[in-house]
Design goal:
This protein has a domain at 18-134: Rossmann fold. Helices cover 27% and strands 10% of the residues. It is an alpha/beta fold. It is globular. Strand 1 (39-44), helix 2 (55-64) and strand 2 form a beta-alpha-beta unit. The chain is built from 5 helices and 5 strands; from the N terminus they run αβαβααβαββ.
């Protein structure tokens, strides 16, 4: 009946458990030996709602297990340039994209597109990058295992125009272990 005060319409909110999905993929991937590449490729709108795991805990798990997250934003998140803009900290900019923080924290990259050929091209490019990348190593004067997060800054002088530099912002040191960390991030 129209205008009845006892009728309430509240549509159920869509569930987007992106954190739980990335954590589940990371747990499976962390079983691979460390000498193999560990890359998770996600096609998503980047929205998160309904996960049990918190983004910060999943990022910590990814970093400890040396797993990179790359992806393609689709849907209403696939606006031109969004992947580039999300890498910048612009004041007063609202973000409902959880995929870009994963890529930024793990040294990955995010493209934005909604067309199938562009998604296929993005996947092929990311697969090629994973195959042909260089790793830089260094020795630290810090204690090897002290539980502290290490920040990384890479500066390249005189790089060519066809050079793309993707660097994770830091890492959690861990002993060379044969088994991955078994702790599960919780809310």
């Amino acid at each position: 009946m129209r205008g009845d005060p006892n009728i309430y319409l509240s549509p159920a909110r869509e569930v987007h458990p992106l954190n739980d999905a990335i954590l589940a993929a990371a747990k499976e991937l962390s079983r691979r030996p460390l000498e193999f590449r560990r890359v998770i490729y996600v096609i998503s709108d980047g929205k998160e709602y309904g996960s049990n795991a918190k983004t910060s805990d999943v990022i910590h798990y990814l970093q400890e297990n040396k797993i990179e997250v790359d992806g393609t934003l689709v849907g209403d998140s696939a606006l031109w340039g969004l992947g580039v803009l999300d890498r910048m900290s612009l004041p007063l900019m609202m973000r409902d994209n959880n995929l870009t923080p994963y890529a930024n924290a793990t040294g990955g990259n995010v493209d934005s597109d909604f067309r199938i050929p562009a998604i296929e091209k993005s996947f092929a490019r990311i697969a090629a990058e994973a195959r042909y990348r260089y790793y830089v190593g260094y020795y630290s004067h810090e204690p090897f295992i002290d539980g502290k997060y290490r920040k990384i800054e890479v500066v390249v002088l005189n790089h060519g125009t066809n050079l793309t530099i993707l660097v994770k912002k830091g890492y959690w040191p861990a002993a060379m272990e044969l088994q991955p960390r078994t702790a599960t991030p919780t809310q």
